[in-house]
Amino acid sequence: MAAPYANDHLNPNGPNDARPTALKIIRDEGLDGKLTGKVFLITGCTSGVGVEIARAIHATGADVYITGRQADKGKEVVDGILADGKPGKVAYLDMSLDSITSVKKAAANFLELSNTLNVLICNAGIALAPQGTTQDGHETHFGVNYVAHFALFHELRDTLLASATPEFSSRVVTMSSMVHAVTTFLFDDYNLERMPYEPYAAYGSSKTATLWMANEIERRYGSKGLHATSVHPGAVLTEKISAQMGGSDGSMQNPALGLYMKSIAQGAATPVWAAIGKEWETKGGRYLAEVSEEGPLRGSESDVIRLGYAPHAYDEDGEKRLWELGLKLIGAQH
Fold first, then answer.
1. Active site residue 203
2. DSSP state string for 259-319
């Protein structure tokens, strides 16, 4: 299995240690300024990992479209990325992932601006939120993390397929998490209406769903030049996480976890590798973390960080069933 930065991950030492950043991935792949004319769409880019993904992708010279819910923040991000002087355009699209109508409108707006889409990165999401529902009535984690991104992919699928060439396959990257291991997808109660609400179960079920989404995209469209992978970005030290953990490096409450924490730029490395790495030019359907393809779940339940894929991560029947459910929920036939 591909693991080009395995040595850099052997002894994690907190944010900004030896583990690679997204920009390092771009440069190591030899793609600095080399993707002029290619088009990327990245969700959730007004803060956190999404900003660094967009910044790294723009360094290739590609056109980058970012989504968010706050136009003022979106403009700040656009201006900040354009400061790198690369030729590609950067544009902001307003999109609220708690509304399928908003997602479809954003997709239509994108298609008015570009008839090409080479890579879709489904970065946006929520984690461990209080119990709630989206505007469409879905449990919040399921609706935002999976249903909205499935709807977005469905709206852009034909453009992704049409943009694929023998020299440059199209790709979809979905954001999963190591928390997918907590539970398989909860088909019997995916809106968590019957069982007691538990944020980790809600989040884990949604992240199994995004993992399965990538697997099923690969199964259906890999032979047509459209590949998909799912990604665990790592334990990333955002401002919100820092506040929850009680310190700038997470060490005040859990020193061991603090060692595994990544900077935001490091957290963007695996998604960027999935999006542009030569390793994934002609294949997909794999779960990635630490800039490597993951093997089976390792370690014990008592470990602070437990990497690898759970036994339910590759479930062809479940993936097909979820796909059909997704179509039903967004009002599509195929």
1. yes
2. HH-B-HHHHTHHHHHHHH-GGGSS----EEETTEE--B--S-TTSSS--SB-GGGS-HHHH
With respect to residue 322, please indicate whether it lies within any of the assigned structural domains: yes
Q: Are 57 and 64 in contact (CB under 8 A)?
A: yes
278 as an active site residue: the answer is no
Domain contains 38 = yes
Q: Which of 24-28, 113-117, 186-190, 248-252 has the lowest average pLDDT?
A: 248-252
Tell me the average pLDDT across 308-314: 97
Confirm whether 2 is domain-assigned.
no
Q: Catalytic pick from 207, 230, 292, 309? A: 207
Residue 171 is part of a domain; what is its CATH number?
3.40.50.720
Q: How far is residue 307's CA from residue 23's CA, in Å, rounded to a whole number?
A: 24
Mean pLDDT of 186-198: 94
Whole domain around residue 121: which residue ranges? 7-329
Looking at the whole model, is its pTM more than 0.90?
yes
Q: Could you give the number of structural domains in the chain?
A: 1
Question: No. of H helices and E strands in the chain?
Answer: 12, 8
Which of these is catalytic: 65, 203, 260, 287? 203
Give me the pLDDT at residue 94, please: 98
Confidence band, pLDDT 50/70/90 cuts, at residue 242: very low
Out of 99, 176, 230, 263, which one is annotated catalytic?
176
Looking at the domain assignment, is residue 209 inside a domain? Answer: yes
328 is catalytic: no
